[in-house]
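On clarity, I found the account of how folds are encoded harder to follow than it need be. Since the whole study asks how a given chain folds, the encoding of that fold should be made plain. For illustration, here is how one protein appears when written out as sequence plus structure tokens:
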Amino acid sequence: MEGETIKIMNQDLVRLDRFDGSNFTRWQDKVRFLLTALKIFYILDPTLAPLPEPKENDTPQVVAARKKREEDELICRGHILNALSDRLYDLYTNTNSAREIWEALENKYKAEEEGTKKFLISQYIDFKFFDEKPLLPQIHELQVIVNKLKVLKIELPEAFQVGAIVAKLPSSWKGYRKRILHKSEDYSLEEIQKHLRIKEESRSRDKMVEESNGGTNKANAISKANHTRGKNNNNKKNSGNYMSPKKNQEQFKGKKGPCFVCGKPGHYARECRFRKDQKGVVVNAIDEEIIATLSDVCVVQGKVQGWWYDTCATVHVTYDKSLFKTFEDAKGDQEVQMGNEGKSKVLGKGTIEVVFTSGKKVTLKNVLYVPDMKKNLVSGDLLGKPGIKAVFESGKLILTKSGNFVGKGYSCDGMIKLSTNDNINKMTSTSAYMCDSNSLILWHNRLAHVGLSTIKRIVKCGLIACDTKKFEKCEICIKSKMIKKPFHSVERSSNLLDLIHSDLCELNGMLTRGRNRVGSITEADQRRKRGMVLPFEPLSISFDEIRYAVDMPQEMKAQGVTEDRLELLKGVSGSFRPGILTALMGVTGAGKTTLMDVLAGRKTSGYIEGIIKQTDIHSPHVTVYESLIYSAWLRLPSEVDSATRKMFIEEVMELVELNSLREALVGLPSENGLSTEQRKRLTIAVELVANPSIIFMDEPTSGLDARAAAIVMRTVRNTVDTGRTVVCTIHQPSIDIFDAFDELLLLKRGGEEIYTGPIGHHSSHLIKYFEGINGISKIKDGYNPSTWMLELTSAAQEAALGVNFTEEYKNSELYRRNKALIKELSSPPPGSKDLYFSTQYSQSFFTQCLACLWKQHWSYWRNPAYTAVRLFFTTFIALMFGTIFWDSGSKRKRQQDLFNAMGSMYVSVIFIGIQNAFSVQAVVAIERTVFYRERAAGMYSAFPYAFGQVMIELPHIFIQTIIFGLIVYAMVGFEWTVTKFFWYLFFMYFTFLYFTFYGMMAVAITPNQHISGIVSSAFYGLWNLFSGFIIPHTRIPVWWKWYFWSCPVSWTLYGLVVTQFGDIKERLESGERVEDFVRSYFGYRNDFVGVVAGIVVGITVLFGFIFAYSIRAFNFQKR
């Protein structure tokens, strides 16, 4: 046998291709044949009985059979692993059974092959034969698809396959196809292939003879025919007597002369594809004039949406910067060469995620950002390197990887366009614009009431055609704008300051959008602001030479930095005034958010008027209206009554356009509830109900598309128009969003100021300032001013130009005007008073506790995934334990009976308690992020929040205890007395409470829920070990007794056991009384119940207090 095995293994039979996840059925058949040849395939039989255990009295035959079975098992496993790729070998190398490996591969990869059923059917239907390839190999490819379908148990009748082959023949076989279809006899697959092979050889010989006789059939011949189509052809040129005999009879062979239909040579009129009665498509026809026409059609006008598959491109290229998931600016001068020998500049590169209509995602790396491109190109060469296979047939592109379908494309305008999700959306949106109307107001309404400047840019790009000179006022836009009255100017004795302020606010004679003047505002002016029911005091904020530094990070010290402090802000000065929307901009790391945090008091101390952070976190299980009620309740002064507060909330909801979302649940970000744009508007509304005078917004449009960003900016603009001071950090806004701002404070990396001043109409003031610097070229027409400004002031461009924009600004007239304005604003007018806040919070401690408890009540009530599931789990566990320990509490004859009854108490405490602790951690982890935001906004302190979180658990756990206690107490059969039943519920209630509070405490002292789960699990193990059930208290070593007394579960079992059995006088079978056994074996004393109850209550209070203190002391925010 060994010799035969070695002989077979030396043959080529065992040289199998390694299985890498594709073509599993083929690989399985080969391995099955190999194992069958080796006579060891029986090892994989699922009905094979397992090997019996060896015995001392086994016969030699049994020992030999066992040895052979073990050797066959080893050889079979080795052959299977040897036929796997390295990746799969490492995956299954720890599986000892060959049958387990075989079944695992079948379950995994046969299921994957089942998923390709529809794809194979579609591939079979779309398969076509072409004249360029030999016919029989193409038939073979079609038969391969049939065999794959047969493996998937899809049988195609032989007559159907023959008919499909005949139907898929090329158009040049039309005559032969007609003859086959008109014959009454049926052909088998072998017969039809034999006929086709003979016919193909005959056609090849005829073609060779025709070429040797000087035939003139040239597909690429081009000539211009001057003739008239139709039957009456009056062109008499070259006419003659066609009935007379000719000297050269060979002139009738071939396709000489022009076609009578299209006028082009190379084919007969019956074969012309321009015939009106022609139904088919001549796939292989080559026409130079049509190619010339297509070259004109394919000229790209403007930017073309979507992704295009290009086998000639050597890199991925895009013109749309918004598509990048990660992006970095280009280093140095990089260029790409176009197909027309032109070169375009590369501004950066990054990673883009392309989502196909199939739902599959392909991540493109090192995609170049080239704004001059007209199409987004995917390199066919780079796409194929990760193993993505591309097959192009019949104008369709199919992308697969390891036999699995990835995506598709189709022929469009001479190229291959990939079917991606953005194609569908953008094609749908553009199809609505195909209108011949040139009315400007029509396009203004269709384009969601965009501005005139945006429509002009669209017209300039050639996307629409309309007359931009005739622009009528839009009634809807006029009504949507919020009219505000300007602030009254204040007369001052200093003409110089008035002149400085006038020059700053009316640079080049153009008024800023705010038209605000610095000075005191009377109370009557305050009440005119937008007609709000609650007045507010408009405030300005000015700052001069702000510097902020932190300790130098260890990473930078490791790189050789010697300084001890890292300066994030270096002498930043500026002012923000009422009714003026200021943009705080700069590249990443410029210090935008740091400056806003310093001004808001988040870096040192102070009173926060209103701040909207970049993360829009709210309690997920309350409605939009309840979120505003909650914020107004805690943040408005206590003098404001409930009716006025609700009227003010209604005004704010109308201002930020939230009336339609009044009863909508907030939900969790990216999961359910409100969209990102709606969350940002809710965040603005939550701050507005506090009636602040100054509002800081940290990137309010981040993560939004153009439409959503426009809605949010309209809300911001409405807020500014109420007369409040609003400052927004923003990264790289669009042209329309940038036009909504009045002034700009621009920082560069390192926290240095390079521009502070008005933006102007269409950014005219900003552009004029930067173009006035020596060496700065003018901005291109239609280019985004904000993008141009950020690119111009980047560190690389600043070094290339040799310009220090900080020094340019400090030497400018604008800087001196700003300094004078800051000095003026820093000098309070006569009669003004300093801002004074008597308390840190608007409401008392008691009101804060009530508000937090109110919100937690609605959060728990609308969270059945937590509350209802917990009650269902409790009921199920109670019924299960009741049936397991049925009537064990009434049995007291043996020691084992007492152990069984105590076991029911022990498992109840462990199961329900740990479940409570784990389930509450997810709720507290979510609410803690909300707490961080609300505490930073000055809504309440830490203890009211902890009070609400702790108190809301009391009634829910009480209901849980009643359900569990009634079921378990009755089914286990404990003694029905008022005292015993009360003590049972008492200890169970406080046990469930301290487990829940412990889970909350674990979240409060750890950075996230995962770490809290790990920490909790470690203590649960120790509590389980020292509970007094596994090892009684009397048998624990003396050096571990301290942990028994500090273990909460041991006190719970102490109370439960001693209250149920500590006073039982009945005797066991051993003659010992039950109460004596409980005292001697467990060490539990009945007269100690009061102390035990007090300790359990104390542990509960302790865990609740640690939770409250940890929430106040620890802050695990990343910023």
About this structure: Residues 895-936 form the longest helix (42 residues). Residues 307-418 form a domain with the Cathepsin D, subunit A; domain 1 fold (CATH 2.40.70). DSSP finds 41 helices and 18 strands in the chain.
